[in-house]
Amino acid sequence: MKKIIYIPLDERPCNRLFPMMMAESQHTIEIVSPPVKLLSQKKRTADIEGLWDFVFRQIETGDALIMPLEMMGYGGLLPSRLHHRDIQQRKILIERMKRLKITAPHLKIYMSALIMRTPQYNSADEEPDYYEEYGYRLFRNAYLLDKKNRVGLSESEEQEWKAIEIPKVYQRDYEERRQYNRETLLEILELVESHVIDFMVIPQDDSSEYGYTAIDQHSISQKIRDLRLQTSVMMYPGADESGVTLLGRCFNELLGQCPKIYPYFSSIQGPLIIPKYEDRPMYESLQSHIYAAGCQEAKTVEEADFILAINCPGKIMEEAMMQGEKDISYTSHRHLLSFVYHIKQWLDMKKPVALADCAFINGGEVELVTLLDDLEILDRLISYKGWNTYCNTLGTSIAQGIFAYHQADVPSIMHHLIYHLLDDLFYQAIIRPQITATLKDKGLSYFDLKTQGPLISKEIERQMHRYYQHFIKHSFKNVTITELKAYSPWNRMFEVGLDLKIEVK
């Protein structure tokens, strides 16, 4: 049995729980992860010293280590956007990473390091306090300046840029932290060149064509080219799926396999659509995620180990909560029924199918799931995902496909399917906007449930049961949900955690 030491990006289910759920289906690997008490808690910094002690205790008997720069270098995802670390602390980090390979030369090290995001809105929920008032201005100022330098501005854009006012102390704080993070990342690339790190991904969180993220991307891309690291460092849109992507690659390499994936989009324009919060067409991100996970693209269904069915928009991407009045292009530029019949055909051919439900942002598509249910093929999938961004869904779908395509652990697959139907479809697309609409009258907000979190969670559980019974008519006949408890990891509405148990007869 191979031992993988896994350090999550943060403590939320998508980063801590999802990888464990996937790995449970495999008896050839053991996943060892630090206790929750050592991890960050939203903006509270993790016990960095405790985490490094944990890692060094485990590596001599470990086969591989998966670690994010954010947790091990800054104390968590959100602390990476808030810290005031200095050059000496960076030196300590680099020396510790070098010591990993000295202590355990056999250890394969997989690392992720995000390009720090620049949200396009005012909110301090995950950012410094001043982002509540100046967030959009910080984004827009850098966006227009970068665009001015690269392609020029229109007269109206030039006037807009000159009118933006940001207190210098806030802009300096934000830019100095970005510079520190970027310089740290550039130094870590040298550890890839010296083979301290075996493979690295650099996801781009909330990316845009111009601005801070694009500027950082340019310098990092240049460094990758200069060091000739294109085969061992990959940069693409994403964030919260990076842990499972590396876990999938690690699993493939430990087993000496390279699964072939046949991608199929639900619309002809789908591969060329640039999703919301990302900077490139769907197909370009797809290729990055396939190869980052240690897989390859199959050119035919016949040669594929599994099918990656990608439900995408027909022309434009909308928010999942708006699908009750979705744009006409979802019908005129996409034939959803044909897409579903293709899935049925492949399943009848005994081809495993992982479904990435990416037609909308921030939630799955109700019509798609009801069609799959009507054709009695929903519970024949090896994976269903439809959460947050396109690349969040894409990365977790590929990873689940890797763990599920060649094994027949039915309870594990059923658990995954139901978990993500409850979360990605019913909660994110339906329940979340409904409950959010009631918060103001209760003195609550989307980002702060105050003391009412447990009561809100009870209502979420009730509605999950309700929608599951309402929409799932023909699937999971031999599966019973024996326990369903919801919780809010960061006491807000954006994500939900589930304690789910099922019984398969």
Core attributes:
five-stranded parallel sheet, 16 helices, 505 residues, Rossmann fold, six-stranded parallel sheet, 2 domains, alpha/beta
Number of helices: 16
Query: What spatial form do the alpha-carbon principal axes imply?
Result: globular
Q: How many individual β-strands?
A: 15
Tell me about the biggest sheet?
Answer: 6 strands, parallel
Report low-confidence residues grouped into runs of 5 or more: none
SSE-based structural type: alpha/beta
Q: Output mean pLDDT.
A: 96
Q: How many structurally independent domains?
A: 2
Q: Whole-Å distance between the termini?
A: 29 Å
Task: Give the strand order of the largest sheet, numbering strands 1, 2, ... along the chain.
Answer: 2-1-3-4-5-6
Strand content: 5-15%
C-alpha Rg, in Å? 22 Å
Helix content: 40-55%
Short description:
The protein is of the alpha/beta class. Helix content is 46%, strand content 14%.
Structure description:
With 505 residues, the chain is of the alpha/beta class. The chain has two domains: 2-119 and 168-255, Rossmann fold; 260-504, no CATH class. Helices cover 46% and strands 14% of the residues. The chain has 16 helices and 15 strands. The strands form four sheets. The chain has a six-stranded parallel β-sheet with strand order 2-1-3-4-5-6, sandwiched between helices. Helix 10 links the parallel strand 7 (260-265) and strand 8 (296-297).
Give the arrangement of secondary structure elements.
Blueprint: E1 2-6, H1 13-23, E2 29-32, H2 48-58, E3 64-68, H3 69-74, H4 87-103, E4 108-112, H5 131-150, H6 155-163, H7 168-193, E5 199-204, H8 212-226, E6 233-237, H9 242-255, E7 260-265, H10 282-292, E8 296-297, E9 306-311, E10 318-319, H11 329-332, H12 336-348, E11 353-357, E12 360-361, H13 366-374, E13 383-385, H14 390-404, H15 410-439, H16 453-471, E14 479-487, E15 497-504
Parallel strand pairs: 1-2, 1-3, 3-4, 4-5, 5-6, 7-8, 7-9, 9-11, 10-12, 11-13
Antiparallel strand pairs: 14-15
